[in-house]
Amino acid sequence: MPARRGPAPSPNSRRRNTDHALGEHSLSLASGESRALPKALAISTGGAKRFWKTWASAPQTEHWLETDWAELELTTKLVDAFYQGDVKLAGEIRQRVGKWGATTEDRARLRMNFDQQAEEEAQKAAQEASTSSMDEELFKMLSES
Q1: Range(s) of the domain holding residue 71
Q2: Which H helix or E strand runs over 112?
């Protein structure tokens, strides 16, 4: 039998994080505030405009403050530069949207949850709406290289 490291666990031990000290965030699938894209940002690519539209109407925005909206503006400028060919920004963009709960894994880490059936319906509708225009834009971007 291998040697045990450290002292044996206490028979009276209790997990300290079972009461969700950080809290859990339940989100409805109703769209958030859905602000218009500020003209002062001078966004020129369709991908960045789609990015703004997606995030501005995401359920997460229901809880956003002005600082969060300012962060969305900055990130949208980065996305615009990315679609103009500055692919070095991909990692920075991914980090920023991860903090908002962009993927299922991000939402699990942030303890966000949605009604599962409603989430699947929203993802399917969003995928159908953006597939053709995204394909066209990516083709255009790749053919310019």
Answers
A1: 33-144
A2: strand 112-113
